[in-house]
């Protein structure tokens, strides 16, 4: 019985030991697989997280590129359609805004009497050089003649007067002419009296020069003499107007400007009660200047300079 029982116990012990080994081995395998699965899950989660992060970055970059493309497309549309949304047109180039120069525009009411020098037939009668003077002067001479064009001075001065008057009127200046035709008989006193009776703000007399020397040339502006007893009341304003005209004319490089000449021997000045100036536009006895004075472009440019000077004076007096 003992021997048999011991054998049985031995076999049972071996069985239990073997079962324990099997149980331990199963537990090891179970937990090892579970750990592997957990590790795999963690790796997968990490990969998913990384993938999501990468996808998010790419999405942001794609959105940024899309926004840039949209902006570029919008800019392109503005340039091409010019905002019309129809036919493509080139975007207009920007130009600087030009502000009109107001310096040569009249700032107040102003009356100018323009006297075209001479007339078709001279009047060789005489008249006092000034009020109460014993000295006599010819009422109106015949003037000079173009050495090349053959044009008489009285025709040139009337043409010039009408052009000058037109320029001034466009700038708001009121203009009166002493004559608008060549067939008149007006002495120098008569011409001054037109300005006096109209209470003109300025009398401007237009002439052309002549000389025995054909090389002499240039524009001159005559103004009353400083110590002339007849023109004391108008000397300063007359000189100011003359200076403005000279200054503006000097801007024209095509014109030779000789400057200002003071004269006390001209009855047209001495009888004037309003500021007066006389422009000798050039020498008709100089071939080149004679041609220039008959050139419409040259003459208009010159008279525009003279008009600029007159308006400068008008604004100075405002």
Automatic annotation (TrEMBL):
PANTHER family, per database record: N-ACETYLMURAMOYL-L-ALANINE AMIDASE, N-ACETYLMURAMOYL-L-ALANINE AMIDASE AMIC
Record keywords: Hydrolase, Membrane, Transmembrane, Transmembrane helix
GO molecular function terms attached to this record: N-acetylmuramoyl-L-alanine amidase activity
Biased composition (Low complexity): 69-82
Compositionally biased spans, kind Basic and acidic residues: 59-68
Transmembrane segments: 12-31
A Pfam family this chain is assigned to: Amidase_3
MurNAc-LAA domain residues: 192-311
Organism: Neobacillus massiliamazoniensis
Statement: the UniProt record of this protein carries the keyword RNA-binding: no
Any one Gene Ontology cellular component term annotated for this protein: outer membrane-bounded periplasmic space
Biological process annotations from GO: peptidoglycan catabolic process
Record InterPro entries: MurNAc-LAA_cat, N-acetylmuramoyl_amidase_3
Region Disordered, residue ranges: 39-102
Name of the molecule in the record: N-acetylmuramoyl-L-alanine amidase
Biased composition (Polar residues): 43-54
């Amino acid at each position: 019985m003992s021997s048999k029982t011991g054998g049985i116990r031995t076999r049972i012990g071996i069985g239990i030991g073997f079962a324990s080994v099997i149980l331990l081995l199963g537990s090891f395998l179970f937990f090892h697989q579970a750990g592997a699965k957990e590790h795999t899950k963690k790796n997968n989660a990490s990969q998913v997280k990384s993938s999501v992060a990468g996808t998010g970055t790419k999405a942001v970059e794609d959105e940024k590129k899309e926004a840039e493309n949209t902006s570029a497309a919008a800019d392109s549309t503005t340039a091409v359609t010019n905002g019309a949304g129809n036919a493509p047109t080139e975007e207009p180039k920007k130009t600087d805004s030009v502000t009109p120069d107001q310096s040569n525009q009249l700032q107040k009411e102003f009356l100018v009497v323009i006297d075209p020098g001479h007339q078709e037939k001279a009047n060789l009668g005489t008249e006092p050089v000034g009020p109460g003077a014993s000295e006599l002067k010819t009422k109106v001479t015949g003037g000079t003649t173009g050495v090349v064009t053959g044009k008489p001075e009285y025709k040139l001065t009337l043409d010039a007067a009408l052009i000058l008057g037109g320029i001034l009127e466009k700038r708001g200046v009121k203009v009166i002419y002493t004559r608008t035709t060549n067939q008149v008989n007006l002495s120098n006193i008569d011409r001054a009296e037109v300005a006096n009776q109209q209470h003109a703000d300025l009398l401007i007399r237009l002439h052309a020069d002549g000389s025995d020397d054909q090389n002499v040339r240039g524009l001159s502006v005559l103004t009353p003499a400083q110590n002339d007893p007849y023109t004391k009341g108008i000397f300063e304003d007359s000189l100011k107007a003359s200076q403005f005209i000279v200054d503006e004319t000097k801007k024209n490089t095509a014109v030779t400007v000789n400057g200002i000449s003071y004269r006390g021997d001209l009855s047209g000045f001495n009888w004037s009660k309003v500021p007066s100036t006389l422009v000798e536009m050039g020498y008709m006895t100089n071939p080149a200047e004679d041609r220039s004075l008959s050139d419409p472009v040259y003459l208009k440019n010159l008279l525009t300079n003279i008009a600029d000077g007159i308006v400068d004076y008008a604004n100075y007096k405002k």
